[in-house]
Amino acid sequence: MLSDRKKKILCAVVDGYIDKATPVSSKDIQQEYLTECSSATIRNELSALESMGYLIQPHVSAGRIPSEKAFRFYVNELAYDYNLTVAEVEQIERHFSRKISTLEDVMTAVTRIISDITNYTAVVVKEDMSDTITAIKLLDLSNGKMLVVIVTDSRVLKDGMLDIPDDFNGQMVMQAERWLNKLFVGKHVSEFINFNYPYALVNDEFSQFNALFKKIIDVLKKQSLFGGMDVETYGESKILQHSEYYDARSAQKFLTEIEDKEKIAEMFTYDGGENGSVTIKIGANDSAPDGCSVVSTRVSLGENISGSIGVIGPMRMNYKKVLSVLDKISEIVIDLIGKENK
After folding, report:
1. Nearest-5° angle of CA 12, CA 16, CA 18?
2. What is the end-to-end Cα distance of the chain in Å, rounded?
3. Residue 126: phi, psi to the nearest 5?
4. Cβ atoms of residues 315 and 68 within 8 Å
5. Calpha distance 286→295 (Å, rounded)
6. Looking at residue 67, which CATH number applies to its domain?
């Protein structure tokens, strides 16, 4: 548990590093963030935070930079206190004042303005979930594996492979299949894409299936997403403007990863979030590209069409500004879609 002073100092290091991309010293913190503390006190706290894994000192005589752990703490504690400038708000509104007649136009407009305002790579993912589920099949492959087959009125999804629990027999697989069909057949895919695991719906008779249901619904979400998905990106080359990517190897690695549209779609959608929810992924351990962060928010793009908008950028990202931009643009998108559906 960090003391209030350690929290303030840690956030000051992160803010300073985001702003200047250079190690932050005790003098910097004392002058710009915590004038009430002495440099000696701040140095002691910086040493403690370093020993706790929050900070890194690149060189003996250098200041500190945040670790991945520090960025995660920072976003969890983040106060949404960034106000867009009048010029930024006008730029956003001016961009959307142009004629926008289709959902594709909306996606294009969103990626361009997000990237222009934030200076990161912008991503918009559209998920058309208008399919109606007609059947769910669980096929025992007799090798400890089970194949999940989802049949809708327009396609068949059969790539969901699961391990069968050791205590499961053929009769239990049939019971689980009947229960899944009772839950989902006749519903649009959109009704379960953000579905919470149905523990409340499982009575004592079916409580043995809880773990299996969780796995199966994960598969339903993931496999259904990719069937009706469209991904648009913009501003990929802007990564070159950030110091972390000045060397060719890092830049090439990022640009190669951003080309994998299916992987990008998964980063931005496979989180179970409801419309309006915000997701921040930091580093490879959090399903973001190595050394990067992914910030996204879920939006409704029309009846049975969900989506996510957001950015991919260096871990040293201006999270406050990004979140403010996404919040403002989400409002505009919801308004535009609402007018289209009237």
Report:
1. 120
2. 51
3. -105, 130
4. yes
5. 12
6. 1.10.10.10
- Kindly state whether residues 301 and 314 are assigned to the same domain: yes
Q: What is the CATH number of the domain that holds 279?
A: 3.30.450.40
pLDDT in tens, 35-50: 999 999 999 999 999 9
If asked whether residues 169 and 221 sit together in one domain, one would say yes
Under DSSP, is residue 63 helix (H, G, I), strand (E, B) or coil? Answer: coil
Question: What is the pTM assigned to this prediction?
Answer: 0.77
108/26 same-domain check: no
Pair 331, 339: CB distance under 8 Å:
no
Q: Can you give the pLDDT at residue 199?
A: 45
Do residues 304 and 177 share a domain?
Answer: no
Does residue 336 sit in the same domain as residue 235? yes
Q: Which residue has the tokens 């960025």?
A: 71
C-alpha 219/C-alpha 221 separation (Å) is 5
Whether residues 245 and 263 share a domain: the answer is yes
Residues of the chain with pLDDT under 50: 198-200
Q: At what angle do helices 210-227 and 170-184 cross, to 10 degrees?
A: 50
Residue 200, pLDDT score? 45
Q: How is residue 289 annotated by DSSP?
A: P
Domain extent for 186: 133-227
Tokens describing residue 111: 């990626």
Q: What is the CATH number of the domain that holds 165?
A: 3.30.390.60
Locate 187 and state its tokens. Answer: 């519903």
Q: Pull the structure tokens for residue 157.
A: 């999804």
> What's the chain's Rg over C-alpha atoms?
24
Structure confidence by residue, pLDDT tens digits, 84-120: 999 999 999 888 887 777 888 888 999 999 999 999 9
Say if residue 265 is in the same domain as residue 177.
no
Residues 119 and 235 placed together within one structural domain of the fold: yes
Total domain count, the chain: 3
Handedness of CA 14, 15, 18, 20 (dihedral sign): negative
**Mean pLDDT score of the chain:** 84
Give the SS3 label for residue 46.
helix
